[in-house]
Structure formats: C-alpha cells, structure tokens
Write a structure and sequence with these properties.
heterodimer, A: about 325 residues, mainly alpha, MetI-like fold, globular, B: about 325 residues, alpha/beta, eight-stranded mixed β-sheet, three-stranded mixed β-sheet, 13 helices, about 40% helix
C-alpha cells in the first residue's frame, strides 16, 4: 500500500495548517484506504464477536452434554434434556431438497431470459423477479399456509403417493404440512435469487464467445450449454450459495408450514423442524438457563453448518476449475 | 428565526416541567393480557396524567428475565415464578393476580356439528397419543348423541413457547399421572404427538384446514373469532363450556386455599361451576423500589386496578377477579416497600 501512496507524497510537499488537510482530503487515497480498511475489518470483528457470543452463551449445554448434543434425539425443555439431530436433519433436508428443485428451474429461466427472450421482455420479467426477491418471508409463509398446504393435502400429496408411493419417501399420513411443503415454499423463495443473479452473470458473457461458438458450427443449444454457461459458472455457483444461505436460515415461512415436530422421519410428508424455526419459536419463552443455552448452541450449530456447506461448495468450485474449462 | 427559537425553548421548558412531576414506568411480559393492560394503562394515564406506563408484550419468559435483569420497573407473566427463579432475583418479586384466562379445545371433524364433550381422560389420552381414533370409547361415551367417525385424530399444539401451552399442560398434568411423568407442565413441552402451529392463529389455521384435527386456543381468542369449542369435564365430573362466569368460579373455588404469595395454579379447581382449564395472570412487582415516586405510582395503579380497573375486564372478554382474591391482594400491597 505504501507504494500506492508514495507518488502522492512526492507530489505534495509537506505542509502544515488547514491547507495541507484539505489537500490530503482532496487527494484522499490515504483516508479512503483507512476508512475502507476499517469497514472491512469490522466484518471480521462482527463475525468473531458472533461466534464468541454464541460460544459463551452455549457454555451450560456444552458443559453438560458435550458432543452428545449433536446426536441426541431428545428435545425436552421441561426435563432439561436437549439434542440437536432432529433440527439438523430438518434444516439439511428442507434446504437441499429446495435447492434440488430450485437450481434447474432457476437456471433454465435465467438462460431463457439472458439468451433467448427479447431484451424488453427479459428486462420486464427481471424487474418482477427482483420484486419477488424482496417480498418479506412472512408473506411467503402465508402463501404457504393458504395455497401450498391445501394443494399438498388434496393434490400434490395424493398424486405422489399414487405414482411414487412405493418409496418410503412418500409413505405415511399426509397432513399438508411437513418437509416437502417447507421445501416447496423455500423453492418459491430462492428461485428469484438464482434467476436474478444468474441472468446478470449470463448477460456479462462477451458476445465474441457466443459468436465464436456459433461460427464453429455449434447450434444455439450447444453454444449456450458448452460455452456461455461454463463461462458464467462461478457467478451461477454464487447465486446457488446465496439461495442455500437463504434456505438454511429461513425462519418464518418454514415454521408456518413444516409442522414443528422435532423428529426424524424418512417420509417427506411427515412434519419436521428446523434450527432457525425452533430458535424463533422458543427463545422468547425459554424460562430455564439450560433451555436458552441449548437454543444458543443450536445457533452455533447452524453457523457451523453454513460454514461447512460454504467451504465444501468452494472446494467443489476450485476442483471443477482445476479440472479444465474456462475460468469465468 | 428568533421567534422559532423562543417557541422551541418554551416548548422544551414546559416539557421539562411536566417531566418533573410525572413518573414513567416501564413494564414488559405476557402477551395474553396485553389488550386489557394497554386499556388499563391508557385509562389510568388519562385520569392520572402524572403516571405513564409503557408495556411491551414480549412474552412471559422474557418479562421475567427483564425484571430479573432490572431493565423494567415491573413484569407480567402467565405463570408464577418458580422458587429457583425467585432465588436469582436481587429484589424479590411479588405476584399480583390481575385477570383470568382460560384455554379451550377446538376441533374440526367433517360431519360433526355441535359441541363435543371431552372427559379429562380423553384429552390426556389424545395428547399422549394413546387415543388415536375419534370413535374411541373414551370420547364416545361422553357424546352419546354424536356419531363420531372412525378416523385418525390429528393433534395440533402450539409450536412457540407460550403461557397457553403451560396452562393446557398444567391441566393435563393434574388429571393424568401418565402425562405428569412422561411430559409435565411447561411453556414448550416435549409433545408426544402432533403438529405445531405458531400462535393462536397458527393452531387455529391448522385445525381449520386439517380434517379430523383437535387443537387448543385461548378462550378470549375463540370468543373474538367466533370459533366453536368443546366442553371439558371439571373436577366435579360435570361437562362445562368455558365462559367468563365459569372461569371466575374456578378462581373463587381456589381462593380458599390461596397461598400468601398468590403463586397458585387453578386448573382443575374444585366446585361444580368451575371451568377446569383456567388460570390467573400476574403482575410481577418488585418488593422494594429505590424511587419512592415509582413506588407510589405502582401502588396507586394497583389499587385502581383492583377496584375500577376490574370494570373494564368483561368488555374485553377477560374474567373478573373474585372479591375474596381482591381483598387479599389489597392487604398484600403493604409488602411493597
């Protein structure tokens, strides 16, 4: 950084008084450097403070249960016995299932908007999608309760049972609320993120790339999937992370439709529970210190899950880049 | 410019003068009595402009925690503080019952209209998961004139920690030894079966949408939303549909054995007219105020609440305190020092 500031120091001979200050502010490289550095450091500070607070706040349960907290099935605030596995399971199942449905959907829509649709139509739809991304999650929860839950009970559920009912995934009573309903609501919530970001990234792919591919005799389909999408891969992955982060941490909409029952069941129709949902539901009325501490430790676990999933995704990205293809 | 300054400074001066005589009290806690508390604090402020009370409805547990931390002047809770909780407080809290509430079972069974009767055993069995069909003999024998379907019961409970769940599970603990040993009473119990809905609305939404379901909501919520609800068997064996008179009767029934600190559960209270799933809700008042102005203001409000304040209860669908309890609370005011 000193190399960057040296020329200015040469250009401005040392002065004293207000003139010097004004000068330094006008050519404010140093000031800007300091200010931006401070803000960047703040992010580190906030993250470490967050972990520190969660760590300290969860001391009672960490001391009492140790690692068994991770795989115990019991969640009994009255008896003072706590385990995280049903919540970890619910969080992972709903988020990953949501991504499984949302990524192909969102990516296909983004490709259409960026590559095939007329520019005017693409811009209008993109504007609407950005609006969707800004809708508060409680609204999606209401949509879930009034539309997705009844649909699940009367149409989607019975149809799945009829066709795929032999799989354990689609067995058992269908109440309308449960893992699958929560995932579907999450799909509706994260698809706008994937479309919006992926479309922007696809639009930045240089024209020459497409033209070169078409010039070599590729069809439009081949040009899109073999040249444009790989070029934009990093950005698309970024949109998927964003979607995953939103799905993992989503609280309100999920708690309204998942049934809030901390049990692990293989059926996707069964009610479940997620980490974010149980914290929102129980923290206010957590009367014992141990109960509060258990909820805080769940927060720590959620942080850890986000950390691990993001790390894994980054590794995956690095691996695919090394494996050839273009770095976008 | 100068004129505005003069006006502004006059405004500030008068505001400061008003502040000098007025007392501002901050309180926080239970959401269930929040509508009547806001009404009371508002009416009281109109009559006594020197006292202003801010109430934050953040939940009973949070109210207790804030009072213990000393961030509010007094708290409010739907369940009494435990001995452990009291032991942690620097200044001990006194419990003052303010109004009464009740919890009612509500259900949605296609083809069944009219009120159902629920025996104590039936409710405990349904929520324990040992009674799974609507035509179970335990339900059927209390409803001889109703044709109940042979369908599975879908149990709905609150997912958020709540005083309503506490009252419900407190009742189940008293009437079923099985429930007491397996689950117990609390704001977020480890439910053996069922789906969780957030808030009264969440429970009601699930019950309305799910055929063959049963849930529980606050009486005041059921009355304001005109939701049909069932009758519950009380300690004398009679089936009662909850109403304000039945709830007050439960309080009167329990008043005879009221402990000095008012920490009492009145679920399954004695008396043929007592609705069994009733409860007091309490204000938690510190036994000592450093600020005498605040002490006088709180005492003044409590005296008014026990007399005139009770007159506002029934228009907001809360049951009145029985006279015996009011008399006892008036005596307890002298404990605030």
């Amino acid at each position: 950084m000193s190399t960057a500031t040296t020329p200015i120091e040469h250009a401005v001979p040392p002065q004293s008084g207000p003139r010097a200050l004004i000068h330094r502010l006008r050519h404010g490289d140093e000031v800007a450097h300091l200010v931006t550095l401070t803000f960047a450091a703040l992010i580190l500070l906030i993250t470490s403070l967050l972990v520190f607070e969660l760590w300290m706040g969860s001391a009672p349960t960490r001391g009492k249960f140790g690692f068994t907290f991770f795989w115990s099935h019991v969640w009994d605030p009255i008896g003072g016995d706590f385990g995280a596995i049903p919540f970890i399971y619910g969080t992972l199942v709903t988020s990953l299932l949501a991504l499984l449905i949302a990524v192909p959907l969102g990516l296909a829509a983004a490709v259409f908007l960026a590559e095939l649709a007329p520019r005017k139509m693409s811009d209008t739809i993109a504007f609407l999608i950005d609006l969707l991304a800004a809708v508060p999650s409680v609204i999606y929860g209401l949509l879930g309760i009034f539309v997705v839950v009844p649909l699940m009970r009367t149409t989607i559920g019975p149809a799945l049972k009829h066709t795929l009912g032999f799989l354990p995934l689609f067995k058992g009573p269908n109440y309308g609320v449960g893992f699958l309903t929560a995932s579907l609501v999450l799909v509706i919530m994260v698809v706008p993120f994937i479309i919006s970001v992926s479309r922007e990234v696809l639009l930045t792919v240089p024209r020459e790339q497409r033209e070169a591919a078409l010039g070599l005799g590729a069809t439009r389909w081949e040009a899109t999937w073999k040249v444009v999408v790989p070029w934009a891969r990093t950005g698309i992955m970024g949109s998927v992370f964003l979607a995953l982060a939103r799905a993992l941490g989503e609280t309100m909409a999920v708690t309204m439709v998942i049934g809030n029952d901390p049990k692990i069941r293989e059926s996707l129709f069964a009610p479940g529970y997620t980490i974010a949902a149980v914290i929102a539901n129980e923290f206010n009325e957590a009367t014992s210190d141990l109960h509060r501490s258990a909820l805080i430790e769940l927060g720590l676990v959620l942080f850890l899950i986000t950390f691990i999933l993001n790390g894994m995704a980054r590794l995956l990205m690095a691996a695919t880049e090394r494996g050839g293809g273009h770095n976008g | 410019m100068r004129k505005t300054l003069v006006v502004l400074s006059l405004l500030f001066a008068s505001a400061a003068a008003a502040n000098a005589q007025s007392v501002l009290l901050n309180a926080a806690g239970a959401t269930f009595p929040a509508p009547i508390y806001s009404k009371w604090f508002d009416v009281y402020h109109t009559a006594h402009s020197g006292v202003q009370i801010n109430y934050q409805a953040i939940g009973s547990g949070a109210g207790k925690a804030q009072l213990t931390a000393g961030t509010v002047d007094f708290g409010a809770s739907d369940m009494p503080m435990t001995d452990d909780e009291l032991a942690k407080m620097k200044v001990k809290a006194l419990h003052f019952p303010t109004v009464l509430g009740a919890v009612v079972p509500t259900y949605n069974i296609p083809g069944v209209s009219g009120d159902l009767n629920f025996s104590q055993k039936a409710l405990a069995g349904i929520y324990l998961g040992s009674i799974t069909k609507w035509n179970d003999p335990e339900i059927a024998k209390a409803n001889p004139s109703v044709k109940l379907p042979a369908d599975d019961i879908v149990v709905v409970h609150r997912s958020d920690g709540s005083g309503t769940s506490f009252i419900w599970t407190d009742f189940l603990s008293k009437v079923s030894p099985d429930w007491k040993s397996k689950v117990g009473a609390g704001t977020s119990p480890n439910w053996p079966v069922g789906l969780g809905g957030k808030g009264n609305d969440g429970v009601m939404g699930l019950v309305k949408q799910t055929p063959d379901s049963i849930g529980y909501v606050e009486l005041i919520y059921a009355m304001s939303q005109k939701i049909p609800y069932g009758a519950v068997q009380n300690a004398s064996g009679k089936y009662l549909k909850a109403d304000l008179a039945g709830v007050s009767a439960a309080a009167a029934g329990a008043a005879k054995e009221m402990p000095e600190d008012f920490r009492v559960s009145i679920t399954n209270a004695p008396g043929a007219a007592s609705y069994p799933i009733s409860s007091f809700t309490w204000l938690l008042i510190p036994s000592h105020f450093d600020d005498t102005g605040k002490e006088q203001a709180v005492k003044g409000f409590l005296i008014w609440m026990l007399a005139d304040g009770q007159g506002y209860n029934e228009q907001l669908q809360y049951a009145k305190l029985p006279p015996a309890v009011v008399a006892k609370e008036k005596k307890a005011l002298s404990l605030i020092k």
